Amino acid sequence: MSKIKVLCVDDSSLMRQMMTEIVNSHPDMEMVASAPDPLVARELIKQFNPDVLTLDVEMPRMDGLDFLEKLMRLRPMPVVMVSSLTGQGSEITLRALELGAIDFVTKPSLGIREGMLAYSQTIADKVRAASRARLPTRGAQSAPVMLKAGPLLSSEKLIAIGASTGGTEAIRHVLQPLPATSPALLITQHMPAGFTRSFADRLNKLCQITVKEAEDGERILPGHAYIAPGAMHLELARSGANYQVKLNDGPPVNRHKPSVDVLFNSVARFAGRNAVGVILTGMGNDGAAGLLAMNQAGAWTIAQNEASCVVFGMPREAIALGGASEVLDLNQISQHMLAKISAGQALRI
């Protein structure tokens, strides 16, 4: 079996050395070359034809975003961004994902060598997922058709969404058409602390509904979407007759924190047949068991189909477990979620 060929683009010689060491420590991949800037990288891409590119953001001569935009237009290939964990860094990283990057790795702020070595398995997992990913084509998804607003739906109805690799754009595609009268949404996207607030703010500017990073104890309201904060599990809870956000600082589940399974299991318990569950693109199996629990509790459950996924991992596992009521293209999910809620068909007998 041939190895995954990786090319690293980073102006830091230490980072290039560390990425090379990490990649070459895994037997199924190799660092074929590294470049200090995009202009050198352009020639190395022609020479080595890598399977995956790891790309820094701030570099001399041409920054990572400019290079990524040109690359995805002229020579599309799987790209994993390497980003600093800062407010500005998170905005730039989210823009990179919009431009077509598959995923990102955060640089540790202190102790680069020790920090990067601790990320070795995570980096390897992201490189593997990128090498198998379906490249997102800019403009390939049809523009979202805004769904018509109906009467304000009861706060008893809600939607739970889970995603990982490729999920930031998939979630945007699902949320953007929703009317302001949409039922409440709880969303877990695998993302580290420092990025989820920027992600929520970005969605809030694009959507008719209000999108925010979830806060512990707040009441869950229709017309609002609540994003799990990075490094915290998001759960549904009840306070009397009302739904409430519960944030959980427990250990990772399925190697993730936040975990989709934690969210889905809580929705199965407290909302049952009043909920719709949606599992979107992502690697691994987080959310598969939780979607099955929702399904068994009477919720209507949707898995994204392979053709529209960047990585058909989490939906595939959920389907294999029997947890999906239906499998849909990304373009169909928004309409189907609201149809099931509005028609009361989530109340399965």
UniProtKB/TrEMBL annotation:
PTM per Swiss-Prot/TrEMBL: Phosphorylated by CheA. Phosphorylation of the N-terminal regulatory domain activates the methylesterase activity.
Record remark on domains: Contains a C-terminal catalytic domain, and an N-terminal region which modulates catalytic activity.
Function of the protein: Involved in chemotaxis. Part of a chemotaxis signal transduction system that modulates chemotaxis in response to various stimuli. Catalyzes the demethylation of specific methylglutamate residues introduced into the chemoreceptors (methyl-accepting chemotaxis proteins or MCP) by CheR. Also mediates the irreversible deamidation of specific glutamine residues to glutamic acid.
GO BP, one annotated term: chemotaxis
Enzyme Commission identifier(s): 3.1.1.61, 3.5.1.44
Molecular function via GO: phosphorelay response regulator activity; protein-glutamate methylesterase activity; protein-glutamine glutaminase activity
Reactions catalysed: L-glutaminyl-[protein] + H2O = L-glutamyl-[protein] + NH4(+); [protein]-L-glutamate 5-O-methyl ester + H2O = L-glutamyl-[protein] + methanol + H(+)
NCBIfam families given in the database record: PRK00742.1, PRK12555.1
Main localisation: cytoplasm
Residue numbers of 4-aspartylphosphate PTMs: D56
Subcellular localization: Cytoplasm
Name the record gives this protein: Protein-glutamate methylesterase/protein-glutamine glutaminase
SMART domains: REC (SM00448)
Active site residues of this protein: S164, H190, D286
Keywords (A to Z) from UniProt: Chemotaxis, Cytoplasm, Hydrolase, Phosphoprotein
Any Pfam family the entry gives: Response_reg
